[in-house]
Write a structure and sequence with these properties.
4-stranded antiparallel β-sheet; membrane; globular; about 240 residues; alpha/beta; ATPase-coupled polar amino acid-transporter activity; about 25% strand; 9 helices; single chain; binds magnesium ion; binds adenosine-5'-diphosphate
Amino acid sequence: MAVDPLIELHGVNKHFGELHVLRDIDLTVGKGEVVVVIGPSGSGKSTLCRAINRLETVESGTIRLDGRPLPEEGRALARLRADVGMVFQSFNLFAHKTVLQNVSLAQIKVRKHAREAADSRSLELLDRVGLAAQAPKYPAQLSGGQQQRVAIARALAMEPKALLFDEPTSALDPEMINEVLEVMRQLARDGMTMVVVTHEMGFARSAANRVVFMDDGRIVEDRPPEEFFTAPRTERAKDFLSKIL
Ligand code: ADP
Ligand code: MG
């Protein structure tokens, strides 16, 4: 596929002490692409995501966003975190702020928008994830699925170039998983560039342009979902799929 690259990793390595958690990672995510990352627990999926918005530093290799190396510190780093939004398994909303305030806060602090403009944009985004009516409530008054949709709205409020999702539905009760995946599918259709770590293989099949399979810190397969799921090339991927499907 001839798309402009947005996220590019070349020869990336990372250790935690003796543990080699990212091994010679090469990965390119094009603008508008949806890449689903799967693999066993401990294979380095979260570290990979965290490296892309520099929540983790790496020891060697290069990571570029839109052609530029990731900034090291200061304001440029804060902007990077806004440009590459991240949605975690634990929704990480501010418990003592309302839903509306949660979505508006970084628009005001990081993007320097006026409160009124931020709030009005927040309401639009909450509407987009089906939660406009919940704006005055506090996170604890919402279900897990609703809280995760607020977290997605909050990330979108930064007008990110890309969104990283690290197991966004793993902490949810089964009946709430689909409402979150549906919001993510809609984002994908709207052309958002997304890297999604998930065990939801239905989502991978229906929304991903590529599936990246990680094992022991390496990218072992990187292929379109229909190929990966019908004919995984490696024994490790076959073994993994046989356990989760
Ligand atoms: P995954 O998301 O695929 O489960 P992670 O990227 O979280 O894998 O972790 C990869 C490996 O690195 C695991 O063995 C994990 O225990 C280890 N690890 C992750 N974060 C840290 C850390 N901050 N300090 C030490 N080891 C870590
Ligand atoms: Mg993880």
